[in-house]
Amino acid sequence: QVQLVESGGGLVQAGGSLRLSCAASGRTFSSYAMGWYRHTPGKEREFVASIIGSSTYYADSVKGRFTISRDNAKNTVYLQMNSLKPEDTAVYYCAASTAPTSGYNYWGQGTQVTVSS
């Protein structure tokens, strides 16, 4: 069982920055693929970014503004969000994939990010 706890959300003005953190339990965190997704009411859940080993992947909508990283010693994955836009407002979820064929099988509770114009 893996528990994921997100933190770092909040209210920020457009153009500002936030850093989300996701602390994970589990002894083999370094082997997990980790991802960030976001959800806005009335819309589908949207992929934001993922990190698999040292490889990173981003949605086109955040490329160049967001950076995903991980600290395996701290069992934590981060999402640095710069140049935030009102359309980035959403609940952000951390997800973990603990096996190559499992997909994202663990999810955090989410953290709200609100960007004011």
List the SSEs and their pairings.
Elements (H helix, E strand, L loop, with lengths): L3 E4 L2 E4 L4 E7 L8 E7 L6 E7 L2 E4 L7 E6 L4 E6 L8 E8 L8 E2 L3 E6 L1
Parallel strand pairs: 2-11
Antiparallel strand pairs: 1-3, 3-8, 4-5, 4-9, 5-6, 7-8, 9-10, 9-11
Description:
The chain has 117 residues and is mainly beta. Helices cover 0% and strands 52% of the residues. It has strands at 4-7, 10-13, 18-24, 33-39, 46-52, 55-58, 66-71, 76-81, 90-97, 106-107, 111-116. Strands 2, 4, 5, 6, 9, 10 and 11 form a 7-stranded mixed sheet that branches. Strands 1-3-8-7 form a 4-stranded antiparallel sheet, with no helix packed on it. A hairpin with a 6-residue loop joins strand 4 (33-39) and strand 5 (46-52). It is globular. The termini are far apart.
Gist of the model:
With 117 residues, the chain is mostly beta strands.
User: Using DSSP, what is the number of strands?
Assistant: 11
Helix content: under 10%
Distance between the termini: 40 Å
Mean pLDDT: 95
* Strand coverage percent: over 45%
Global geometry: globular
Total number of helical segments? 0
SSE order, one letter for each helix or strand: EEEEEEEEEEE
Nearest-angstrom radius of gyration? Answer: 13 Å
